[in-house]
Amino acid sequence: MNLSSASAASAHPLAAYGWDEGWAEEFASDADRGLLPGRVVRVDRGQCDVVTPVGLVRADTEFVTPRDPMRVVCTGDWVAVDTNGDPRYARRVLQRRTALVRSTSSQRSEGQVLAANVDHAVICVSLAAELDLGRIERFLALAWESGAQPLVALTKADLVPDVTALSYLVQDVETTAPGVQVLPVSSTTGEGIDVFGAIVSGGTSVLLGVSGAGKSTLANALLGDDVLDVQATREVDGKGRHTTTTRNLLVLPGGGVLIDTPGVRGVGLWDAESGVGQVFAEIEELAEHCRFHDCAHGAEPGCAVLAAIEDGTLPERRLDSYRKLVRENLRIVAKTDARLRAEMLRDWKLKSAQGRAYLTAKRGGSR
Fold it and tell me: Which of 1.20.120.450, 1.10.40.50, 3.90.76.10, 3.40.1060.10 would CATH assign to domain 273-362?
């Protein structure tokens, strides 16, 4: 990028929303057709709110709504908009740089894009409730797979006034999230808000977490105003209601763009093999030293992973969580990969045959 191009991009009306020279180059052919660039700030029932150089417009997504749910317009997308006529139409979705995808709760083997073109995936975890390390690992796998940089924000840190206790909680999450910054924050006292604001000021960030995790409250602290509605969590279990019902993209006064999302009850993985590997990097590294290259870390001799559990360097909970997410991801991938389904079926039949042979021999029958 030369200086003149960079200067033009920074002076663009959409620069605050993340417009840069890369987007300008991809949009060039659309500009020749008389279309305007815009970023989707909200999607609702086949229409989307798009911020453009001429202001906010409501655009129909009829021309960019394919059957593939992975390509449906979502918050954070950049689109080419035809602002002439009524209704106005989004004519093309620009190629996404990153996409945060989870599996749907349906039985149709589909993925759902939660947000697009995200630089930081902020996993909000409330300290008002007991830490669920397994859930954090799920969110981290989803975040790493998207291409964004994860960050764990431990919200409501003011509810843990004991500095030592807070330090232990941070250490627990850091062990669960290797290579990820873990930041205690409090929208009440302001703890960590300045540091957090500096991190998200560079690029687009999305807030992830369950209901009651403090996402909207944290967003309001960054915005400097009560822009998003918030509700109190239940004292009995620390859970909250679904205050945010849509994904909203907001420009932060200190720089950067923030996407607030509704609380999610389930975090299903979607083809997240590399994301799972990133979350459990220490297990993947240990596995390279196992005697067998296809070691399942069950009872095989010379298993470096099991040796690490025996000597206490690897918590058994981590291995259990790793196995669970690997199995889940394989099932999801197998739903859309016929070859993998066949391999898994053969493996299951082989293990079943071996189990039957073992039982027969144990009962004194023929081998």
Answer: 1.10.40.50
